[in-house]
Amino acid sequence: MKKAEEPDYRALLEEIDGLVIVDREGRILVMDDALARSCYINGQPLNKDTAVGRDIMEVIPTTNIMKCFENEEGQVADYYFVEGRAIVSTRKPIFRNGEIVAAIEYDLFGIGGEHLTDFLSKTAKMSKERTEFKNEFSSILQTNYTIHSIIGSSDKIRRMKDEIRTASRYTSTVLIEGETGSGKELVAHALHSLSDRQLAPFIKVNCAAIPENLIESELFGYEEGSFTGGKQGGKKGKFEMANHGTIFLDEINQLPLSAQPKLLRVLQEHEVNPIGSEKNIPVDVRVIATSNEDLKEMVAQGRFREDLYYRLNILNIKVPSLSERKSDIPEIADNLIRRLNSHFDKQIVGISQKALNALKRYDWPGNVRELNNVIERAMSRCEGDKLKMMHFHEDFIHQYQNLDEADDAPLEDTLAHVRERAERKAILDALANCRGNKVQAARSLGISRSLIHKKIRQFHITPEEY
User: Fold this and answer.
1) Are the CB atoms for 387 and 356 separated by under 8 Å?
2) d(Cα 95, Cα 103) in Å, to the nearest integer?
3) Triad 260, 263, 266: Cα angle to 5°
4) In terms of CB atoms within 10 Å, which of 30, 299, 333, 390 comes out highest?
5) What is the mean pLDDT of residues 199-211?
6) Can you tell me the distance from the alpha carbon of 158 to that of 373, in angstroms, rounded to the nearest whole number?
7) In whole angstroms, what is the distance from residue 297 CA to residue 72 CA?
8) 97 exposed, middle or buried (CB, 10 Å; 0-12, 13-18, 19+)?
9) Nearest Cα residue to 299 out of 307, 291, 290
10) pLDDT value of position 405
11) Which of 183, 426, 180 is nearest to 328 (CA)?
């Protein structure tokens, strides 16, 4: 039997649109004929044979193929220009025994861009559909924050973030407890944005802001003609609006006792009965509630139903007060300053150690919300590049006017905390400067790739932060 003729793999490679392979020195090993003929040396077009051995940067000065050797990573759908034409390419390094020996690049849409028009048409259609989808749901998708909006790296905050991630995997009711201004609403938003209901409605109800005589109609809706002043055609309640999504009952401790039995029934039966209606409407809603009072204590005082408390308190997340996590104050302050710089059109880069020590000595009864107000007021008075004690409000300064120079030393930070914050910031800055490329970031910091990956995990650094 005649042995099958071995295929000419080099010839097959040359059939790939825009193919070029180079070695570590940038010398061309293979180039397809169409690409070669689009390149000129001294005014003369090349071909697949005359291109081989030449420096790729001499033939195509705009190519990014040599980045494969720098980054040890490929790039998908990158683009550059050859003789005025946009070339969209994918490239990747070729390894042998763990070392990069060459890099390969090929075009996605052909040298002449013959498939580009069809691709652009399809992506334009997808973009339009995505915009229409976002516009359609913009009125009900109210999550403004994610878990990355919760700033801090203290043990308490790390534990709380782990609890949020765990709770987001389930549909059980969550009770979030914490002091006013501690960030309970951020936790509720983060829970929804991490859950599989993230594209469904997120309906917020401020239980403290609704008059007692309207709470039932707001939560459960009403039929037309149920009472004087009602809307023609009736009105959907918040639970029905949140169907398949999440309802966020903020300050549930302010819910009147008269409305609590009906809320309990909705949680138990998973259906609502609008005022004036004889029909029960099934609802699939995940309930997240917050309280700035101890609900268990309220139950003992007869101000909150015990059965409703246990129905709400299936999963519980306690948000630590700012006074419990003062080691997070420098990180929170830096984040606030960065956010507020654009608001004030300023370039403030930090806060003096003496002012920072004062912030860390204060007990913050208003929590992060109060810290935000104090820093915002100080920034409005600052004309330099650093917040100092003199920029803070007189009432705040008065409490610390007797601080001596010894207060310039960190009060509560251990050396480990200081080092961790400095390491985390250095890694974030390097990743930002290297546009997220971890290999380049590690190189700029003088550490190995494995170490930067370890540090990213250790400090819970996410792509959204850089």
Assistant:
1) no
2) 9
3) 155
4) 333
5) 91
6) 25
7) 59
8) exposed
9) 307
10) 38
11) 183
Residue 289 has pLDDT above 60, yes or no: yes
Q: How far is CA 457 from CA 75, 169, 421, 446, 450, in A?
A: 24, 21, 14, 18, 11
Angle, helices 353-361 vs 367-381, to 10°: value is: 150
C-alpha–C-alpha distance, residues 422 and 236, integer Å? 52
The strand ranges marked E within 154-224 are 174-177, 202-206
| Alpha-carbon span 288 to 251, nearest angstrom | 11
Sign of CA dihedral 180, 183, 185, 188: negative
- Tokens found for residue 188: 């509720």
H or E element in which residue 351 lies: strand 350-351
Both tokens assigned to 219: 């939560």
Q: How far apart are CA 192 and CA 236, in angstroms?
A: 22
Count helices and strands in the chain by DSSP H and E runs: 20, 16
Measuring CA to CA, how many Å separate 54 from each of 59, 62, 91, 107?
7, 15, 19, 20
Q: Provide the token pair at 244.
A: 């398949």
Residue type, 85: R
Radius of gyration of the CA atoms of the chain, in A: 31
How many other CB atoms are there within 10 angstroms of residue 241's CB atom?
Answer: 17
333 neighbors 421 (Cβ within 8 angstroms) = no
Q: What is the mean pLDDT of the chain?
A: 83
**Which residues of 126-279 form beta strands (DSSP E)?**
174-177, 202-206, 246-250, 271-272
Compute the 3-state secondary structure of the chain and give helix, strand, coil in percent, each to the nearest 5: 45, 15, 40
pTM of the model as a whole:
0.59
**Measured distance between the N- and C-terminal CA atoms of the chain, rounded to whole angstroms:** 63
Q: Cα(195)–Cα(136) distance, rounded to whole angstroms?
A: 20
The encoded tokens of residue 113 equal: 């861009």
Q: Tell me the per-residue pLDDT of 50-91, one tens digit each, with 9 for 90 and over.
A: 999 999 988 888 888 888 888 788 888 776 665 556 677 888
Written as one string, the DSSP assignment of 291-350 is: ESS-HHHHHHTTSS-HHHHHHHTTEEEEPPPGGG-GGGHHHHHHHHHHHHHHHHT----E
Which range among 19-28, 88-97, 218-227 shows the weakest confidence by mean pLDDT?
218-227
Q: How confident is the model at residue 403 (pLDDT cuts 50, 70, 90)?
A: very low
* Beta-sheet pairing, 44-45 with 40-41: antiparallel
Task: Note the residue count of the chain.
Answer: 466
Rounded distance, CA 333 to CA 331, Å?
Answer: 5
- Please list the residues that pair with 45 across neighbouring strands: 40
